[in-house]
Amino acid sequence: MEKTVNASALKTCLIDANPNALMIIDFKGNILEVNQKLLSLFECKKNSLRHANLNDFIDEPDFLKKHREIFLKKNQSEIDTFLKLKNQKISILLNSLPFKNEQGKVSGAVIQFKNQAILESNCICNSEEKTSSKLKSQYTDLSSQEISSRYARSLIEASLDPLFTISVEGKITDFNHASLEVTGLKREKLINTDFKTYFTEPEEAQKVYQQIFDKGFVDAYPLVIKDHKLTAVLLNGSVYKNDKGLVIGAVVVARDITTQNKIEKELIEAKVFAEKATKTAEDAQLKAESATQIAEDAVKSKQQFLSNMSHEIRTPMNAIIGFTKVVLKTVLDEKQREYIEAIKISGDALIVLINDILDLAKVDSGKMVFEKAPFKMSFSIAAMLHLFETKIQEKNLTLIRKYDEDIPEVLIGDPARLHQIILNLMSNAVKFTNRGNITISIDLLSESKKDVTIEFAISDTGIGIAENKITSIFENFQQATTGTSRIYGGTGLGLAIVKKLIESQNGSIQVQSVLGKGSTFSFRLKFLKTNENVETILPYFHKEDQIKGIKILVVEDIPLNQLLMKTLLDDFGFKSEIAVNGKIAVEKVKNNKYDIILMDLQMPEMNGFDATKFIRNELKSQIPIIALTADVTTMDLAKCKLVGMNDYLAKPVDEQLLYNKIVGLLKNPNNSLIPKNAVIIENRKKCINLNYLMTRTKSNPLLMSEMISLYLEQTPPLIFSMKESFASKDWKTLQMVVHKMIPSFSIMGIDNQIEEIAKSIKNFAEEQFQMNDIEDMVYQIESVCLQAFEELSEELKLIQLN
Amino acid sequence: MNTNQQKVFLVDDDAVFLKLLAIDFQLQTDFKVWTFETGEKCIENLDLQPDLIILDYHLDGVEKGVMNGIETLDKIKEYSTLIPVIMLSSQDKIEVAIDCMHHKAHDYIVKSETSFIRLQTVFQSIFNVKQIEKKLNWYMDRM
């Protein structure tokens, strides 16, 4: 029994030792047992609790009912809830555990009231409590007001932005942890100090809270906190009021914008950098463009120099060769003849070289113009091979000709350039072959409705070319071996010209060679087909046919050339007179009768063009005029035709050609350069060049035809307006119209000089200074545009056919 | 079609030059190109929201009583100051260039065979700046 007593006493001790208030109740709420803590909580003695009911102490009458239902029906093992006690102002958390009798039926509950002191100290946990309820009880044990207050506080403290509350006087009354961080001060040091002293600009800071108290809020006010690293902040703030609505202070949030500022700065830097980069790129591009321009200019000036030099050399050579020929016709002794022959051969060689250089320069600068004239291929080849007969016989070689009979008789192309190509290749073959034979074969490769492709091959059994030299032989001034020129002569320009001439006509050249065995040069060219027939030019140079009593006016300013021309004409049996410039020529034509005029183009006082115009327009004379020109460029020819010249002759004048032309013109004055029928239109040099357009459109036929159609559509009205405005002296319109025409010239590849003429017209129209040949210029533009119109219409048809 | 495609207006009364420029754009850029032969037509179509306009200085060359380049430029700027306008002219005159700049043209380019290359640099820089501005705004929105 002692044991039992002891056990019962121990239990009571245990219950009393529990820091929480405990009570045991039955279902009805009758209090069965309590501990000491409960007595102090309920503020009563143990005796007064006998037969007392829980309801007597709590403020919620429904509690017991709910309590019972939960245990009986829901079979729940534990209840945690808040309950308001009658003698306490606040709710208290209670925990209830049911207990069962011997039969296992729930007969009552142990109720535990949580001790607030314990909870606040956060150190003791009721051993009976489950871990899951620990946290809950920690919070819930506080009064709800305090809980929400604590919760708010912790949120404030957790904020990374410094938060302050300040009084109306600007004293700091409260703040969060971040404020300590940012000011670097301790709590005690911060409280009740002046808010404004923590900023680099105290006056500004004062303005902030003044503004808050004036307006009730402030939004994004930038300031800098005077901490160890000068944090840039944006202040946001608003007032807070007491229960009566009186302003008692302000809450200020300082947002750290260092990072944003940094990003912004970086962004601005990036922007500046990007702009700089763009600028640099632009500069680089400009630089590259100007470098290209300089390089192009350099090439151009080189070509111009070569061209000018050649031209300057050619003029005196003209006299040298001419007079040499004249001297050769006189009676000479053997030695003299030998020396003079030597002069002539050297002179001829020099002229060939100069012509080569000029040709190269022309091809390089794109000035080389290929004629499209009908010619007889077989006749042309035969005539040329004729030139080599003596040489071949001298060297005891055999010439083998193979000519494909299927090649149409008449083709359209540039016979002069074909001549030049074959001449170069043949003279190489003859030059480098000492025994054996030279074979020239001309084969029809393919034929279409419009054109034929012909392959020309020239093979020799000469010295051949080393394999590693084959690629360089086509370069300017290159020969297969450096010693070649010493032994065989030549400048090394021939093949370069051949290659360029072929490639400019969209052809190709190939070479096969075995050193010591021989070489084969073959090239392919396209020729247009035609139904026209060409009259073979009969050699007029028959003394017996001589026309007597012809009177020729030679207009030439250089005395040597005057003398040469006179000698030549005397030799033909023609009478001649000299006029030293255009002005004198015009006077002479006015007063005398001549059969033909040979007109130099560049002369002082009045040049050949002006003189011809005067003769045609003022004197109304149709006398045949042959232009003498040193450099045959497209422009000169176009101009010759334009002013009404009948034909032209390139210097140095070829005796036989001169004779033929004079006689031809006298026999048939209509046989002139001025286009009168279709055949001669074919003879004209093309004024357009579609290369530029092809590059720009990447040779897209659709785009090409669109461009050409637009030009064809736009140009006629422009020509019309140009003529009309010129006639009616409407300078403003003339200027505008010509201005609009200018870009199309370069687009359609029309000669740059035409564009220059157009610009002169524009300048004239703008300033209206006196300019005599403005009418001619307008006429020139018109004729070029009309020609371009025709040619482009043709091209358009061709493109559309394909 | 790419919706980000930049839209370009080309305005020139010289149909041949206009076409050539359009071809350049067609072959060498991703831009969507509209061509107009008068300033009036360009203005009528501003609702298409072009990103760039290339405008000839001499629009009233032959046809009378139509707007010239500067008038068109003013009208465009009235509509929106944000559309960059590049002026084109075959006149290499400083007064013309200054005139254009005074009327808020973005740039002035002399017509030549290389003007397209010049144009390319200019609109590259325009679009670069636009992109930078866009980026800047993006950041500003997030600050």
Keywords:
heterodimer, A: 802 residues, alpha+beta, seven-stranded mixed β-sheet, five-stranded antiparallel β-sheet, 26 helices, 50% helix, B: 143 residues, alpha/beta, five-stranded parallel β-sheet, 5 strands
Structure description:
- The complex is a heterodimer of chains A (802) and B (143).
- Chain A is α+β, with helices and mostly antiparallel strands and 802 residues long.
- Chain A is built from 26 helices and 22 strands.
- The longest helix of chain A is centred in the middle third of the chain and has 71 residues, at 258-328.
- Chain A is elongated.
- Chain A starts with a helix and ends with a helix.
- In chain A, 27% of the residues are buried.
- Chain B has helices at residues 15-28, 39-44, 69-79, 94-102, 115-141, and strands at 7-11, 32-36, 52-56, 85-89, 107-110.
- Helices cover 47% and strands 17% of the residues of chain B.
- Chain B is globular.
- Chains A and B meet through helix 10, helix 22, helix 23 and helix 24 of A and helix 1 and helix 5 of B.
